[in-house]
Amino acid sequence: MKTKYFDVKDAGISVKCKLYYGEGHTFPRVVLACHGFGGNKDNAITQKLAETLLPVHKDTAVLAFDWPCHGDDVKQKLSLQDCTRYLETVIHYAHHTLGAKTLLASGNSFGGYLLLKHLYEQENPFEKILLRCPAVCMYQALMQGIVESGQAESLKKKDALVGTEKKIRVCAAFVEELKNNDITAWDYTNHTDEVLILQGTKDELIPHDTVQSFADKNGLDMISVENADHRFRDPVKTREFIDYAMQYFFE
Fold first, then answer.
1. How many whole angstroms from its chain centre is CA 241?
2. What is the b/e burial string over 116-132, where b = at least 16 CB atoms within 10 angstroms of the residue's CB?
3. Is there a domain that residue 45 lies in?
4. CB of 127 within 8 A of CB of 104?
5. Domain of residue 68, CATH code
6. How many structural domains does the chain have?
């Protein structure tokens, strides 16, 4: 397996990307990997997924990237508008530079939220979307689980640096964007054949019941992964995720 770091530039933005691939320069099938809040393109589960699938599916590449303000990205303030631009930019790159005829997507937490937001607002570019612990209640997750005690109230007046791996600057405008883009209120019943959700029963950030209600309301398939936390830290649960991904994407 080979890896390559590069930037995809478009109209004043530069998206930091990481490509996992085998031989060749074009790839008929590309898996787009979307990390969660505070994460980055180098996350371990994406690497393990690539290590598993590339030796078997040699016409496939895995494309990971940093959301705005995450990883090596240089933006100073996070916005949903910028997230949408980044996602659209890497989708265009996968099609027109990597030569993808089939696009697949894997998104966890905030990445899952952004994929669902894009799915609702735009024509779906993905054949299949796999969501791991998607932050369907992203506003509540940020205000009640991600920001530290006392920061939620102060966000109304000043920016706050939140997160663990890399501090992300969150401002009141971003909080308002999340509040106004509540995907639990949106209809996804036209996408029942395109989305699979894997949700840990011990998720400490996104309640299992909340995701189950979202899936039931929209007729989306959901698999409950027993005793998995939000990040699937247990290597056994990571293996379960990869096994489900291989079966779902390539069955």
1. 14
2. bbbbeeeebbbebbbbb
3. yes
4. yes
5. 3.40.50.1820
6. 1
- Other Cβ atoms less than 10 A from the Cβ of 86: the count is 26
Per-residue DSSP letters for 54-92?
TTT-TTEEEEEEPPTTSTT---SS--HHHHHHHHHHHHH
Q: How far is CA 18 from CA 21, 22, 66, 205, 222, in A?
A: 10, 13, 9, 27, 29
pTM exceeds 0.85 for this model: yes
231 domain-assigned:
yes
Q: What does the pLDDT profile of the chain (251 residues) look like in tens digits? A: 999 999 999 988 999 999 999 987 889 999 999 999 999 999 999 999 999 999 999 999 999 999 999 999 999 889 999 999 999 999 999 999 999 999 999 999 999 999 999 999 999 999 999 999 999 999 999 988 888 777 777 777 788 888 766 788 888 899 999 999 999 999 999 999 999 999 999 999 999 999 999 999 999 999 999 999 999 999 999 999 999 999 999 98
d(CA 61, CA 82): 25
Name the token pair of 61. 């590449």
| Token duo for residue 151 | 């920061």
- Cα-based distances in Å from 153 to 79, 137, 145, 149: 19, 19, 13, 9
Whether 217 is covered by a domain: the verdict is yes
